[in-house]
Specification:
two-stranded antiparallel sheet, phosphorus-oxygen lyase activity, single chain, disordered N terminus, alpha/beta, hydrolase
């Protein structure tokens, strides 16, 4: 279920559409109540990570080892890859990711209700309600990662690894070298180029340096042939089509 900026969402929508399709059982009403409390307690531009803590506490789940897939500027590619590689586990596969993916919400200025038509831009808020939720979800996802993890980066742009991205600011810093065996970096350029960054050049080198400093073991592969062949067969490729 996707809620656009001009649609509405109430408790029945939330419980019926979000939870009935997720393959695990949770106390749905408790999660909804904590979500409402987080959004309505503060003005729209001041919903912090801490405001969502109770909600996330009520939806704790185990995360499988050797399956975590992180990404930056490769979202459509990530979804296509994960759809075929069924063993991979992305943030969108968690309960929070499943529930809130592609949704936008904030508090109405006058009433204690949701607003989907006039929410501020992320950049306009010190603590945007959507950004704060994804920040906490990303932190939880990274903290629970274990075994071998994969990072999918876009080799067709500058700053394939952006220290200011959600991966760079939250997930990378939340990975635990005591839980993670290897960080396997996959740098993939769109078919037909350009190949701007690679394992030995550009911002990917900065990522590797950070991993080394924090004591992680790592590998890095440019344009893995399996991924490239899979993409060639399954995606309508134009320059940059899958790196949004």
């Amino acid at each position: 279920n996707q809620v656009g900026q001009t649609q509405t969402m109430n408790e029945d929508d939330f419980l019926c559409n979000a939870f009935n399709c997720y393959p695990h059982r949770y106390e749905c009403e408790d999660i909804w109540t904590h979500f409402e409390d987080a959004v309505f307690r503060q003005p729209s531009c001041n919903v912090t990570v801490e405001d969502y803590r109770q909600m996330f506490h009520s939806m704790t789940q185990n995360q499988p080892c050797h399956r975590s897939l992180f990404w930056s500027k490769t979202r459509p590619l990530m979804h296509s890859y994960a759809a075929v590689m069924k063993h991979l586990w992305t943030l969108e596969d968690t309960l929070a990711g499943y529930m809130f993916n592609d949704l936008i919400w904030c508090r109405q200025q006058e009433d204690a209700d949701f607003d989907f038509s006039a929410c501020p831009e992320w950049s306009a808020c010190p603590n945007h309600p959507v950004y704060s939720l994804w920040r906490q979800a990303s932190q939880n996802f990274a903290e629970m990662a274990c075994g071998n993890v994969t990072v999918l980066l876009n080799g067709s742009i500058s700053n394939a690894f952006n220290r200011r991205s959600m991966f760079g600011t939250v997930e990378l810093d939340s990975l635990d070298p005591q839980r993670v065996d290897y960080v396997n970096i996959q740098v993939v350029a769109s078919l037909g180029g350009p190949q701007i960054e690679a394992c030995g050049q550009g911002s990917v080198v900065d990522l590797i340096r950070i991993l080394q400093t924090r004591g992680f073991l790592w590998t890095c592969t440019d344009n893995d042939q399996y991924i490239v062949s899979f993409l060639f067969k399954t995606v309508e490729w134009e320059l940059g089509c899958c790196f949004v």
